[in-house]
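Quick one, T. Sequence first:
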Amino acid sequence: MRYFEKASIKAAQSNGVSNRKPDALSAKPNFFFPESHELLPADSESSESPKLILNEENCQIWYMKDDKFKTRYILASDYLYFKDTSFDVSVEGKVFIEIWTDVINLYLKEFLYTVKYATAEFDWVNMNAGFQFRFFCFRDKFEQFVCTCYKMLQKFKAKNQQQRFDAVREDKLKEANNFFFQDPKSQAWEYLDSMLYSKDYPKHLMLKALEELTFERFVEL
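Structure tokens:
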């Protein structure tokens, strides 16, 4: 047994893998763990219905306090709309949104993994003519959490994401091409579903738009 242990260590070291134990003190601290679990005092006026607390030309903020479930969390949503409200209706727009969403997920993967262990969540969904960003976090860390999320998004530069773009696009192309290897019955049902229920574009149009979406076009959009 000792021989195999020594042999394994020797093989790992020859491959450039260190047998040094990880230093727990070198790990980055998770700043999103709560420091206080106190509840805010009840406020019947703020908990009756949502109230508009900020109304500007390009921004509105609504607030409603929860006095029913008495949780220590804050749940917030932020809606961002496209300048071109018909963008996500086009074939190219739908393909771009799918690619952009997956690229952003890869870009934020480590950050989202970190906040998950502090019981915080940040995600987004494509809405009509825009995105809905959703934040969920302990109350005393909420402002820091939201600010960090937006700073991460501000740092995102499409021109620096070619490796992630290529990986996502390749997976999408494989998935789209695999559809045409299915039996005709399954393909027919998919087309019927896209026309009557999901209202998506036919697969061959999505595939064509995906093939034509270059990295340069991705950066431009």
